[in-house]
Amino acid sequence: MALACRSCRRGADHLRDRACPTPVFPCMNQRAAIHPVVIRFGRLGDTILLQPLLHKLRRRYGGACRLVSLGDCSRVLYEGCEDVAEVRYFTSQYGALWLNPRRLRTALALRGMRESPFYICEPDVRARTKVRPMLALAGIAPEQCTFIEDTPLLPDEHWADWLMRFADKTPAAFRDIADAQDGLSAAPRLVPTMAEQCEAQAWLADRGLQERPLVLLQPANKRTMRWNGVRQAHDDDKSWPVERWAALSRAILEAMPDAHVLLCGSSEEAAYLSSIRTAATHPQVIAPKGGLPLGHLRALLHVAHSMVSVDTGPAHLAAAVGCPLVVLFGNRWPSMWTPRSATGSAVSVLGGLPHVPRVDHIALPLVVQAWRQLPSRPEAAARQLMESSARAAAGMPHEPRRGLFARRPARREHVQRGS
Fold first, then answer.
1. Domain that holds residue 69
2. I want to staple 220 with a disulfide (CB 3.0 to 4.6 A). Which of 24, 49, 269, 335 is the partner?
3. Judgement on whether residues 167 and 264 belong to the same structural domain of the protein
4. CA 180 to CA 157: how far, in whole Å?
């Protein structure tokens, strides 16, 4: 609660110099912005689903959130986002805190946030055992914290809805904070920066693809690759045979002869993607040799015709950007994990529990039909897309941020912007 002088209405600092003898009174309509700290050690999809919660907390407390997370994806997704003032991340949560220098540095940095509310969005018991020592080392009082484990997941509740209910909770030290506003969307919305769009347009132009429809395929998930190559199909419920991905590519190009099919994945998955391209035997199927960096993927999803993906992080990114999507589920419940789109772009779901426990049980004709039946982007979103793409192609000035394809420092664990 801010303090103000009763007579001159200046801030209370001048009273320390006895410049005004008037007593100080609490000013009810002046409150310094509070920056909530959100902790989540999830993967890409988990981090994307945080966006509605981050937005809701910013609206409640008046200040953008400070995000503590696992992996570089949080920096790429949220650097420059108005809901996030600061991103701190480390690359591994394994081992004792004292033996993990990056996690230790992050824990020590939390000491400067002792006056903030802490929202621990970590449902996994093993991950919570990593969070609590960090909070203890930083001296974060229990009344500053609220844990999602104390807000049970409801039957068939979507993960994003659970996070939004959790955002309504308030740590004991902040009980006077106003309740959250109703009507906020529980669907993530992530827009590529102008820098990302410009560089994506340049990438497309270099390959003669700028004026052609682009359909993205995401065949891999976090379990696809092992240290010695591609995981055996029987050990991965999200695996769809290479031959079907290749046949899907050909079916798409038969329906859209001017299009190109882009196989998406990380650099570690490049050889697997190349095997799909080889099986497709079509010159308009592209598998980038070094994979697609996350920021690059977000910008391409912004201009793509559509995407077909297994249930994995890039599928959530496609929906969050507004790209029409077909997503293939294996041994998970679509009611809990279906990607959501804040723009209203189409999301078509195939498979999933309780009836289809493996992606390879989904027949090729069903996927082709679902893709053919995808509606176009909503009119307003399509118009905005055309305008932003035109600006990017024209090379209009954009915020001075590091390029998507520029070399990044090998060690960068903290990103902060003015709030």
1. 37-174
2. 269
3. no
4. 20
